[in-house]
Design a protein that fits this description.
Strand content: under 5%
Helix content: over 70%
Number of helices: 6
Structural class: mainly alpha
Distance between the termini: 14 Å
Largest sheet: none
Number of strands: 0
Keywords: Membrane, Transmembrane, Transmembrane helix
Number of domains: 1
Protein name: DoxX family protein
Organism: Flavobacterium humi
Transmembrane segments: 6-22, 42-62, 68-85, 97-115
Radius of gyration: 14 Å
Length: 117
């Protein structure tokens, strides 16, 4: 079974995003809402998940499961995006309107992953 090229684009993006969790953890730690305990662990878990799911997208036997995993991950990390929108200290220098655009972008990413299920 040959996988479409755009699935590899998605895989690459998630692998790079996952690696970035370890390269620049402060960026991600700033957007984790304070009501979650142990933000360092959550950052590592989400980084590992992105890397593993990205790799699994490239394996035909696992790609459908990985797409479901990515959809779940996007739902689980939505509170961070919402917190980033609401809190100027978590804004990472982005304007309010750009942070607002990020919120529905999650739905677009979920639909993109759903295409591979």
């Amino acid at each position: 079974m040959t996988l479409p090229w755009h699935l590899y684009v998605m895989a690459f993006l998630y692998i790079m995003a996952g690696i970035n969790h370890f390269r620049k953890p402060r960026l991600y730690l700033k957007i984790i809402p304070p009501y979650f305990s142990n933000p360092e662990m959550l950052n590592r878990i989400s980084g590992f998940a992105e890397i593993i799911l990205g790799i699994c997208l490239c394996i035909p036997l696992l790609s459908e499961y990985a797409a479901w995993g990515i959809m779940a991950l996007l739902v689980f990390i939505f509170p961070a995006n919402l917190y980033m929108y609401q809190n100027e200290n978590a804004a990472l220098g982005l304007s309010k309107w750009l942070r607002l655009v990020r919120l529905p972008l999650q739905a677009v990413l979920i639909v993109w992953a759903y295409v591979y299920t």
